[in-house]
Amino acid sequence: MHTKTLAQLSSGLHRREFSSQELTRAFLERITRFNPEINAYVTVTEEQALAQAQLADQRIAAGLSTALTGIPIAQKDIFCTQGVRTSCGSRMLDNFISPYDATVVERYNQAGAVMLGKLNMDEFAMGSSNETSFYGPVKNPWDTGTVPGGSSGGSAAAISAGLTAAATGTDTGGSIRQPAAFCGITGLKPTYGRVSRYGMIAFASSLDQAGPMAKTAEDCALMLQAMAGFDERDSTSVDHPVPDYAASLNESLEGLKIGLPKEFFGEGLDADIARNIDAAIEEYRKLGATVHEISLPHMHLSVPAYYVVAPAECSSNLARFDGVRYGYRCDNPKDLSDLYTRSRGEGFGAEVKRRILIGTYVLSAGYYDAYYLKAQKIRRLISEDFRQAFQQVDVIMGPTAPSVAFRFGEKGENPLAMYLSDIYTIAVNLAGLPGMSIPVGFSGGLPVGMQILGAHFSEGRLLNVAHRYQQETDWHQKMPGAFA
Amino acid sequence: MSFSKEQVNTVAWLARLAIDGDKVEAYAHDLSSIFGFVEQMGGVDTDNVAPLAHPLDQMQRLRPDSVSESDRRDTFQALAPLTEAGLYLVPKVIE
After folding, report:
1. A152, A210, A207: which is closest to A181 by C-alpha?
2. Cα gap A454→A458, rounded to integer Å
3. Which of A64, A140, A326, A347 is the most buried (most CB within 10 A)?
4. Sheet of A72-76: strands edge to edge?
């Protein structure tokens, strides 16, 4: 059952080939068996899952179900889940039992999905390898000596190893797309404001976005349908109608104009990855698309601008973790300052501390204009590049990451080396655009992902473009041998 | 630009973040290399460019100034390290 897609499982449930309880138990058994090796889950909610599965079976029997009813999914541990630990991959929240559900969680519960547990991630979503988690690194199921990517590494690894039918992730600089690429699965970062951030622990408020991760574009369409939509409780939520994502999946790609930014295919790109991307583009030509070279001239500034904006926003968002009202508190604080500094110093890991320092500095008196304001201006230039590009083409394609999954510790000494692995994904967050990563091949036995980007609120088209490719190819069906 | 150990300590204090003495140098080194990289932005002319704070260039949505939340203090304080009589307890501030 773990090799089936979400859509196939939904079909099976509704045809009564198996029950949600059977399906849920099957996944829970696999988690018990394989999670120690992969470390994808931080918390497994076995009792709750079986209770939800039982209710789901009743709903299906009564004809009151949705496509997601009875489907076992898992939530990245950045989403608040009522009564269940919500750790954000950090010691700071190791003892935090959330008193409420995030909107995303609420919507999945309403749809009748079954929550298997909470998934491991880079601490406070800061990382590209899932090596910074307080709960230890997640292993890539394709080669457990390599990283699954990050920050949604647990989500990607769990889907890849068949430990959940689908999962939620979040993407601030590539954290859905890059792990999807490294683990050979499909992930989508929606347009900024498409999915509610209420109850989603904030990293960088102008960049964060929640999105679906699954085996296929069709599965992501079903997941996005449940997640997307205006939410009054999120002041950055956009009141834009939610289309029927599944309905447009099979539209023809005849005449589709694909843009390939020359900046994505320059020197830094590994030749084998380029070969895989070229082969994928060739499939699109066969489907009737035309290919055009475009330019995004300010692309090279996206990583520097991001590493000013994101840390600045994170330093602000993480100021609330002070040992007073919830979360980690240091032992025997001498005075209030000691309480603050040591709770935070001990509660946060090194990468989080690094980013808080960067952010605090760039927002401090005398430096705001030179760094933060400058970065926001660069952001507008990058956004403009995309706006102009989308006047010429319908979608943009390119590699998701400059390499396949790297080995643990490879980027260890130099944080900059880690930051540069986001080189193809970051600009998309700065511009608030939607983007997907789909598996398009392998290099040295490890998955290669390709990005598909679109204009604001074009998720339907991206899913359609991805789905048509997946109907002609079978990369998305591959599973790592050890877990198949 | 080069980050000195003093600068790291100053910024750490602003952020109320304790850094072990023997780690300060490493942070200074990392921050120097990150800021060296970030300096690239300086070379770009942005004189007539407006900053983009919100990716869709939207304004903050407002709502009427009326009470919409319920009192959940007990639920929230159940999560706190130390409380008493509905207050959060911290080490004494005023001598």
Report:
1. A152
2. 6
3. A140
4. A41-44, A114-119, A72-76, A166-170, A210-214, A186-189, A435-443, A446-453, A395-399, A257-261, A290-294
Question: What pLDDT does residue B28 have?
Answer: 95
Q: What are phi and psi of A395, to 5 degrees?
A: -140, 160
Shortest distance between the Cα of B53 and any Cα of chain A, in A, equals 6
> Burial, A338: exposed, middle or buried (Cβ in 10 Å; 0-12, 13-18, 19+)?
middle
Other beta carbons less than 10 A from residue A29's beta carbon = 11
Q: H/E/C letters for each residue in B28-78? A: HHHHHHHHHHHHHHHHCCCCCCCCCCCCCCCCCCCCCCCCCCCCCHHHHHC
Q: Tell me, yes or no, if B28 comes closer than 8 A to chain A by beta carbon.
A: no
Helix residue ranges per DSSP H, A145-250: 153-160, 177-183, 217-227
Query: How far is residue A280's CA from residue A267's CA, in Å, rounded to a whole number?
Result: 20
**What is the C-alpha separation between A468 and A479, in angstroms, rounded?**
20
Give helix A459-472 / helix A271-286 axis angle, nearest 10°: 90
Cα A139 to Cα A147: distance, rounded to the nearest angstrom: 6
Alpha-carbon A319 to chain mean position = 24
Q: What is the pLDDT of residue B95?
A: 64
Tokens of A361: 């500095």
Judge whether A77 and A89 are in contact, CB under 8 Å: yes
What three-state secondary structure class fits A366?
coil
Cross-chain Cβ contact B52/A238 below 8 Å: no
Can you tell me the mean pLDDT for B12-41?
A: 94
Beta-strand ranges (E) seen in A339-425 are 395-399
Q: Which residue in the set A96, A336, A357 is minimally distant from B90, CB to CB?
A: A336
Tokens of A184: 């050979």
**Which residue type sits at A13?**
L
Cβ(A81)–Cβ(A117) under 8 Å?
no
Q: How far does chain A reach from its first CA to its final CA, in angstroms?
A: 10
Rg (Cα) of chain B, in Å, rounded? 22
Which residue out of B7, B47, B49, B52 would a mutagenesis test of the A interface target, given it has the greatest number of A Cβ atoms within 10 Å?
B52
Structure tokens, A294: 């475009």
Across A437-453, b (16+ Cβ under 10 Å) vs e yields bbbbbbbeebbbbbbbb
Hey, which residues 51-80 in chain B have their CB within 8 Å of chain A?
A: 51-56, 58, 60-61, 63, 72, 75-80
Per domain, the residue ranges of chain A are 6-256+393-483
Q: What is the pTM of this model?
A: 0.97
CATH topology for the A6-256+393-483 domain: Amidase signature (AS) enzymes (3.90.1300)
In one-letter notation, the amino acid at residue A5 is T
Inter-residue contact A70 to A56 (CB < 8 Å): yes
What confidence score (pLDDT) does residue B93 get? 78
Distance CA A159, CA A151 (A): 15
Q: Which amino acid is at A146?
A: T
Contact A100, A4 (CB under 8 A): no
Nearest CA in chain B to A194: B56
CA pair distance A240, A137, nearest whole angstrom = 38
Low-confidence ranges of chain A (pLDDT < 70): none
